[in-house]
Write a structure and sequence with these properties.
By secondary structure, the protein is α+β, with helices and mostly antiparallel strands. The chain folds into six domains: about 70 residues, Helix hairpin bin (Helix Hairpins, Orthogonal Bundle); about 230 residues, D-amino Acid Aminotransferase, Chain A, domain 1, CATH 3.30.470; about 90 residues, OB fold (Dihydrolipoamide Acetyltransferase, E2P); about 80 residues, Orthogonal Bundle (DNA polymerase, domain 1); about 90 residues, 5' to 3' exonuclease, C-terminal subdomain (DNA polymerase, domain 1, Orthogonal Bundle); about 70 residues, Rossmann fold. It is about 35% helix and about 20% strand. The strands form seven sheets. The chain has a five-stranded mixed beta sheet with strand order 2-11-10-3-9. A five-stranded antiparallel beta sheet has the order 14-13-12-15-16. It has a four-stranded antiparallel beta sheet with strand order 5-4-7-8. It contains 25 helices and 24 strands.
């Protein structure tokens, strides 16, 4: 999500002078931090798309209010200052950034602008090169008399970091070259291939080390190691595409100079081509876009450069960018790749969910190898009502597909390129039996999903139900998370919820003890057993939610707990409601927020003999606490409250329970419906969003004072 500025909702031409000044100050701060995160820390918090959006708005405001341009304007910045730990190198020729094009028409305007600046008519020849924009770390290599004497990162464009020792460990960078000018600064990009990135992360995981979010971060972090031996162990590559200081020309054209660099022994990109028209360049851009998944390394656009070097000299530079070059960026949240397989996963409610296994591709700064396919209708190219989607194109194994993601949303398949579909491809047949337990998988009328009918005999459903039970919003047992549940289930130690509370009796004594398992010891085993004992007393709403009944979420569980008050009354009502003519059924449907679909799911769970027996065995292990009556006259009754940051006098669970007892609704996210934010130390994006929305914000002491406990 784009970090919202104070007046982001106001069009630039509608901003007042004061509003424009405030927004420029905000943008200068946010973009400077983003530059430092990306260039200095190798840990960007802002996506490329969000960064570009904010920088474009900054430029638009400066154009509308030139008198307000700040001395620290992002328009005048390239990269970020060098980090501590490296010597500084002043570039003899500045390393500049590029202006960006986001639409095809931006490229056409770029070419028209060059013709106008040079005084060239529409028919005069004007060649440009087009090359992939490598997503890595910029590096300048200085050769004197054919010997590599210095390597420096871009830094802030004027001063970079001296990484000479590290650069010498990269096989693509020659230590000596023959036939070059006496002084030659070769510039290019250090990167890491997809295969090497995946292998590196596997090694890091095995060694208990840090893994990287994407190849760009991995490459940058590897090059900027203070220990060159670490860099040597990392599989870095280098593409050359430009030059800085030079004692004699390499050629009179950009394309000729790149050919000369290749002759000198540097790796240059084979997709770099020369074109005569904007239309040819744009066609090459779209061709490269569809090849991204097969390149084996990350690119985020195509760079166009005027080929004639004399024209480049005449065009010159703006403050931070050359007039003779532009980067045509790919849409940040879209990429094409191959669909290698379709797997079927079985969830807690028995839903058969298709998952696309993809050739890994970077989308929006994240390496994506899996994507949801929703359901069998989506795969077939239709919606739940039978209407066509993707113009009726189905999805098959082996297809070339377009992947998209927005923000933190799970990646999805957006489209299929039928021109690249294998001739022997077959329509995907959605299974009618569960891949986990072979029970029938049925699709009820009105349901978009096919579901396994195996219930608790289905291992996938059983494991997912157990994971749900121990989740934070349900039983929240310290030390017993999804990983431990999965392992215990596979080993036959836990098969149903009640088994959790018998774990110590069965595996705390004798030869087969938990403390003897790999990864466990006396202390950790004792801590887990104690954590389980601590959760024998269970709030009614947590128990109802923890049962994992389809459609019964956290909020609905709270409603049911408040309505019935005790487990005995809730259980009796759920049992009696099986008779749809009963008062219990009518009362259940009359609860505000409980609809017919949820009621039906709840009744079915208690009507299923096997599931009911499992519930009864669990409850027999617990002391279920009655729901606390909510206040109606408290200062927060009826209000929506959000807690964020670190609370020092209360746990988050205690604060939430307090608020709910006082009649408040506790939400996990800030929105326009939020009435109050309670922010402790470390509050981040939620506090910022609350401030943007004008929502009242107080600290923990303020909260305690508000509810009469201060």
């Amino acid at each position: 999500m784009v970090k919202q500025s104070p007046h982001h909702h106001i069009a630039v031409d509608a901003l007042s002078q004061a509003q424009a000044q405030q927004e420029l100050a905000y943008l200068a701060d946010v973009l400077a931090q983003a530059n430092a995160d990306y260039h200095t820390k190798d840990a960007p918090d802002l996506s490329d798309a969000d960064y570009d959006t904010l920088k474009r708005r900054n430029a638009d405001i400066e154009a509308a209010f030139p008198n307000l341009m700040r001395a620290d304007s992002p328009t005048h910045q390239v990269g970020a200052p060098v980090a501590d730990g490296f010597g500084k190198v002043r570039h003899e020729v500045r390393m500049l950034s590029l202006s960006n094009a986001f639409e095809d028409r931006d490229v056409e305007d770029f070419v028209k602008g060059i013709r106008k600046y040079l005084g060239l008519g529409d028919d005069a020849p004007l060649a440009l090169t087009a090359e992939p924009k490598i997503d890595g770390l910029s590096l300048s290599l200085r050769y004197e008399n054919g010997v590599l004497v210095q390597a420096a990162t871009r830094g802030d464009g004027e001063t970079g970091e001296n990484v000479t020792v590290n650069a010498r460990t990269i096989s693509d960078i020659p230590a000596t070259i023959e036939g070059a000018p006496d002084i030659l600064e070769v510039r290019g990009e250090v990167y890491m291939s997809h295969a090497d990135f995946e292998a590196l992360n596997q090694r890091q995981t095995a060694a208990g080390g840090k893994t990287f979010a994407n190849p760009r971060n991995a490459a940058a972090g590897s090059l900027r190691q203070l220990d060159a031996e670490i860099t040597r162990a990392r599989p870095l590559r280098f593409f050359a595409y430009a030059w800085g200081a030079i004692s004699a020309p390499l050629s009179d054209t950009q394309s000729g100079a790149i050919d000369r660099l290749a002759q000198l022994g540097f790796q240059t990109n084979p997709l770099t081509l020369r074109f005569e028209t904007a239309q040819e360049m744009i066609a090459h851009y779209h061709s490269i876009e569809t090849q991204r998944a097969d390149l084996g390394y990350d690119i985020d656009g195509v760079v166009y450069k005027v080929d004639n070097l004399d024209y480049q000299r005449r065009l010159g530079f703006r403050s931070t960018t050359p007039r003779w070059a532009i980067a045509h960026k790919f849409p940040a949240e879209l990429a094409w790749t191959h669909l290698e397989a379709i797997d079927i996963q079985v969830g807690r409610t028995g839903a058969l969910s298709p998952v696309a296994r993809l050739t890994p591709v970077t989308v929006g700064g994240v390496v994506v190898s899996n994507a949801t396919l929703h359901n069998e209708d989506y795969i077939a190219g239709r919606d739940s009502k039978g209407a066509p989607i993707r113009e009726g194109r189905d999805i098959r194994v082996g297809d070339f597909v377009q992947v998209y993601r927005a923000g933190d949303v799970i990646p999805k398949i957006k489209d299929v390129d039928l021109s690249k579909r294998p001739k022997d491809s077959e329509t995907f047949r959605f299974p009618t039996t569960c891949p986990e337990c072979a029970s029938s998988a049925v699709r009820e009328e009105g349901d978009a999903v096919r579901r396994c009918t195996g219930g608790m005999i289905c291992p996938a459903q059983a494991v997912e139900k157990l994971k749900h039970l121990v989740s934070r919003a349900a039983f929240d047992i310290d030390g017993l998370g999804a990983k431990q549940v999965e392992q215990f289930y596979q080993d036959g130690w836990i098969k149903e919820p009640a088994d959790i509370y018998q774990l110590q009796d069965r595996y705390g004594r004798g030869l087969q003890q938990l403390k003897n398992r790999e990864g466990w010891g006396e202390k950790s085993a004792s801590a887990l057993f104690q954590a389980i004992e601590d959760k024998r007393e269970m709030a009614l709403r947590r128990l109802i939610f923890g049962l994992g009944i389809r459609h019964v979420g956290e909020a609905a569980a709270g409603l049911l707990a408040q309505t019935y008050g005790s487990w005995a009354q809730f259980e009796a009502a759920a049992t009696a409601a099986q008779d749809e003519t009963s008062d219990a059924y009518t009362d259940l449907l009359n609860i505000d927020g409980i609809g017919a679909v949820m009621a039906s799911s709840l009744i079915a769970a208690f009507a299923n003999p096997q599931e009911r027996a499992s519930i009864d065995r669990l409850v027999a292990q617990l002391t279920v606490l009655d729901a606390e009556k909510r206040a109606t006259d408290s200062p927060v009754a009826g209000k929506t409250v959000v807690f964020t940051g670190t609370l020092e006098k209360l746990t988050r669970a205690e604060a939430k329970a307090q608020a709910e007892t006082l009649g408040a609704k506790v939400s996990g996210s800030v929105s326009a419906k939020t009435d109050l934010l309670v922010a402790g130390p470390g509050a981040g994006s939620k506090a910022k969003k609350a401030a943007d929305l004008g929502i009242e914000t107080i600290d923990e002491d303020g909260w305690l004072s508000l509810i009469g406990q201060g």
